[in-house]
Design goal:
Number of domains: 4
CATH topology of the largest domain: Thrombin, subunit H
Strand content: 5-15%
Distance between the termini: 55 Å
Length: 630
């Protein structure tokens, strides 16, 4: 019997997803159970307990796959929990440690990541026999690359300060990043990711800190041409190996077929690295000023079958942060041209418009940019984008006091929820984001920090608000269960210590009519990043009879938890809280891939039946509205 067995069998589907032991088993098999964050947190707690209890389950191979799965899905906090338990059980592993450091960096915990990396680099022996010398060499190089990433992030943070920037500090981080990347590339020129980062940062250094005219620096051209030659050879070899593999299929010979399958699997593994090769070729040509060639390799990168939205986002970030490309001004320079192409493709891949706070502010301040980029586009009309930018002033990013961004929330006038006529602003999010009622992986209200990035213009960082009082908190249960009889809603309503500049969003307690063209929209901060506005493919699928649950096919990601769900008139009808690849349908038997929100109508019913004390006398009784009435 597995350490995860509890003696209770589970049926496939939702019952299986809601059982932490079964969910843990599925995760170890590499099956993704959907972005139901509290279910993931419960499953991870099962895995953490197993690591603490057993010296063999899960084994090191399973643990490596698990932390990679969480990082690939951008659930970095869950990676940290598994890796920390592994370390505390003295089951140290350099690969798991590397993934842990990656997660910490993406959570913006740079100091913690740096400490961990240095500890890993100082370790002389690894207890597990599965750690080969080749693995240690590869992971060591990756760890030094992560030190370069930390220095690069610090440089970008310092260089982008609108005021108070200290050039000596910025250059110090830049030089440190170049050193880490260049050292690893010099040791092994097949480490092209280190090489391309060193190249981009050397060019940025030459731009920001020009050398004396008598001391020309042509290292970058040699580095770029070397990378291009090596990577084109790699692409050609991979293509030729694929042709040879295809022509050598053994037909019905079983024994030869097994050997052929091994070679095919190896070729497929190598193909998984190919998107980064193509992106690197694009960036190397950019470094040489060969924009047409850079665009050619960019198109090959974009259209490669294994390129993920995460890969697109990584290259966009490199182009905008290091090369200073502006995706809204394609004519500015080559980096902007590439960033513009990538951002258009990223919009199609993520089914939404991604904007940093600075880009959103730029659109508000420069109508010409707005007209140029969105006029004539049926999905992003100028009027729609202008209206959404105003709405975004009232949508906030939720972080913990250590800087970990975990969710989204939005402002509503209290009277809209309680029906008491109050104009006081309240902040609505999920209970699995902010909670004082014991929800796994949530943050207590005293540690929550809220920022409205479009509220502050170009001030960096934007003002930070704290929770003054929790008015309502209801834990997450009954997800993807139609007409669930319980009262749990996965919602939290709080007041803030000072009044933000934003206004309460308009709400509608009635559900839109269902139909093949019915749409809903979600705006939030996926992965704790910039604003993501989901406009494409945003189909309303169904809602249950209260209504309590709303299902839709609006693309969302971790960090969208707590985001407002809008109808086609941009009125809030619900709060996004989960997604599942096999959600129970709300209208009939069966499953489908869906995201789920909690209807504001259900929240209003709960609040008006149980008003907080002290509270104003309600002017609207709890049964005086009919959420589904025409």
């Amino acid at each position: 019997m597995s350490v995860f067995d509890d003696g209770n069998a589970s049926e496939p589907g939702e019952a299986d997803t809601n059982a932490p032991n079964a969910a843990a088993e599925r995760l170890l098999k590499g099956e993704w159970i959907g972005d139901i964050e509290w279910v993931l947190a419960e499953a991870v707690q099962v895995l953490v307990t197993a690591i603490q209890k057993s010296a063999s389950e899960p084994d090191v191979g399973q643990a490596r796959k698990l932390v990679r799965l969480f990082n690939d899905r951008l659930h970095f906090g869950l990676t940290c929990r598994i890796a920390k338990a592994w370390q505390q059980a003295d089951r140290r592993d350099i690969t798991i440690g590397n993934r842990h450091a990656q997660a910490l960096i993406n959570l913006r915990r740079l100091e913690d990541a740096e400490t961990l990396i240095n500890e890993l680099l100082e370790t002389q022996e690894w207890p597990d026999a599965a750690v080969s010398p080749e693995t240690i060499a590869f992971e060591t190089a990756e760890l030094y690359g992560l030190l370069g990433r930390i220095a690069k992030d610090r440089f970008v943070r310092e260089a982008e300060r609108p005021e108070g920037c200290r050039p000596d500090h910025a250059r110090q981080w830049l030089r440190q990043a170049i050193h880490h990347y260049h050292e690893q590339y010099d040791a092994d020129e097949t480490r092209y990711r280190h090489g391309i980062n060193a190249l981009a940062l050397l060019i940025r250094e030459r731009t920001d800190f020009p050398p004396p005219s008598a001391m020309p620096d042509d290292r970058t051209d040699g580095l770029a041409t070397g990378l291009i030659a090596m990577l084109i050879e790699k692409v050609s070899a991979h293509r030729d190996a694929g042709k040879a593999l295809e022509s050598s299929h053994p037909g019905d010979d079983v024994a030869a077929g097994l050997a052929w399958s091994v070679r095919r699997d190896q070729w497929n593994r190598e193909a998984g690295d190919m998107p980064w090769v193509l992106a690197t070729l694009s960036e190397a040509h950019l470094a040489l000023g060969e924009c047409d060639a850079a665009e050619l390799w960019l198109c090959r990168f974009i259209n490669h079958a294994d390129t993920r939205p995460f890969d697109l986002g990584s290259y966009v970030r490199q182009l905008t942060e290091i090369w200073r490309g502006d995706p809204l001004r394609a004519e500015k320079d080559c980096a902007s041209r590439l960033a513009h192409i990538l951002s258009l493709r990223q919009q199609a891949a993520t089914q939404g418009l991604a904007l940093s706070a600075a880009q959103a502010q730029d659109l508000r301040e420069n109508p010409g940019v707005l007209e140029k980029n969105f006029s004539g586009q049926s999905t992003f009309s100028v009027a729609t984008v202008r209206h959404v930018l105003r709405i975004c002033e009232s949508i906030g990013c939720v972080s913990s006091d250590n800087g970990r961004r975990i969710g989204t929330g939005f402002l509503i006038e209290r009277g809209e929820l309680w029906g008491d006529g109050s104009r006081e602003l309240v902040f609505v999010t999920n209970a699995h984001v902010i909670s004082d009622c014991g929800v796994p992986n949530s943050i207590p209200s005293r540690r929550a920090r809220i920022q409205f990035e479009l509220d502050s213009g170009r001030v960096a960082p934007p003002p930070e608000y704290r929770v003054k009082e929790v008015l309502y908190c209801s834990p997450p249960r009954g997800s993807f269960i139609p007409n669930y009889p319980g009262t749990d809603l996965d919602l939290c309503v709080v007041t803030l210590d000072t009044r933000p500049n934003g206004e309460g969003l308009a709400i509608n307690l009635k559900m839109p009519d269902l139909g093949p063209r019915a749409k809903v929209y979600v705006v939030g901060h996926p992965k704790g990043g910039g604003l993501q506005i989901s406009l494409h493919d945003s189909l309303l699928l169904s809602y249950d009879g209260i209504p309590r649950l709303i299902h839709y096919r609006t693309p969302t990601e971790p960090g969208n938890s707590g985001s407002p769900v809008f109808n086609e008139d941009w009125e809030v009808i619900g709060v996004h809280h989960a997604g599942s690849p096999c959600a129970n349908r709300l209208d009939r038997a069966g499953t489908y891939e869906a995201n789920e929100g909690i209807a504001l109508a259900a929240l209003c019913l709960a609040l008006r039946k149980n008003p907080p004390a002290p509270a104003l006398s309600p002017t609207l009784p709890s049964d005086s509205f009919s959420p589904t009435a025409p």
